[in-house]
From TrEMBL:
Class of this enzyme: isomerase
Keyword Cell wall biogenesis/degradation among UniProt keywords: yes
EC number, UniProt record: 5.1.1.3
Pfam families found in the cross-reference section: Asp_Glu_race
Keyword set, alphabetical order: Cell shape, Cell wall biogenesis/degradation, Isomerase, Peptidoglycan synthesis
GO molecular function per UniProt: glutamate racemase activity
Single GO biological process annotation from the record: regulation of cell shape
Residues where substrate binds: D8, S9, Y40, G41, N72, T73, T183, H184
Species, as recorded: Polynucleobacter aenigmaticus
Lineage, uppermost ranks: Bacteria, Pseudomonadati, Pseudomonadota, Betaproteobacteria, Burkholderiales
UniProt function note: Provides the (R)-glutamate required for cell wall biosynthesis.
Protein name, entry field: Glutamate racemase
Reactions this protein catalyses: L-glutamate = D-glutamate
Family from the record: Belongs to the aspartate/glutamate racemases family.
Amino acid sequence: MALIGVFDSGVGGLSILDEALRQLPEHDYIYLADSINAPYGEKSSEWIASRSMELCQYLAAQGCDAIMVACNTATAQAIAHIRTELHHIPIIGVEPGIKPAAMQSTNGIVGVLATEATLKSDKFNALLATLPNDCQFIKQAGAGLVSLIEAGQANSEETLELLAQHLEPIQDAGADTLVLGCTHYPFLRKAIRKLLGDSINLIDTSEAVVRQLKRKLETQGKHLDDSKCGSIRLISSKDADTLHQMAQELIQSDLSSHHIESQLVSAFR
């Protein structure tokens, strides 16, 4: 059994934790939400890199056997440096699934909904440059969406209206595939389906990310104990009770078999 750290700017990484609990429920997890600073997508690359390193160092100090940087923006801006500094443990990041989207698209038109920082990052654009020129990517920053999700408004009319504005260029271009390029955005699936219907293919990389975590743990010899479910420690830099409540609302895995505790870490304020 392993202790897995999961870090995000807020509640978006709960989509990654949810998938981890489905695939690897036997491990113990620390979920660290830097909600006092969410969203990261509108901050400078230097700030994102520094803050991400600080929080990953904290998780490493808690004894984590692996860390999942469950934030596309933090992955894009900081993961190379984090891996260099914390080279003794696996660091798994997330990135927009533009490669599988290009492979799955029928008409070669793919929408990418992500934060401004992710879309402008060198890491994202280097990945984009490796893909075939015959696939057209419609890049759209989802400004304002993360803040609404953080406020528990994923399915509100305000969110639906803002999301419709962001999706309009993608829809007008005729995209048949949409990349959810922020870990917050899987919580908008219901709203996206309401606006675009079932014909568009949604790409979310959480399943592949957790498979990569599983492979890393296996190389460490971390064997699973199928007889139990691990614990979950929820840590917030803003409001531990709200994080706990939103985890209960957003995570679809059965949490009743896990021991859950939550805490506020004021040192990160």
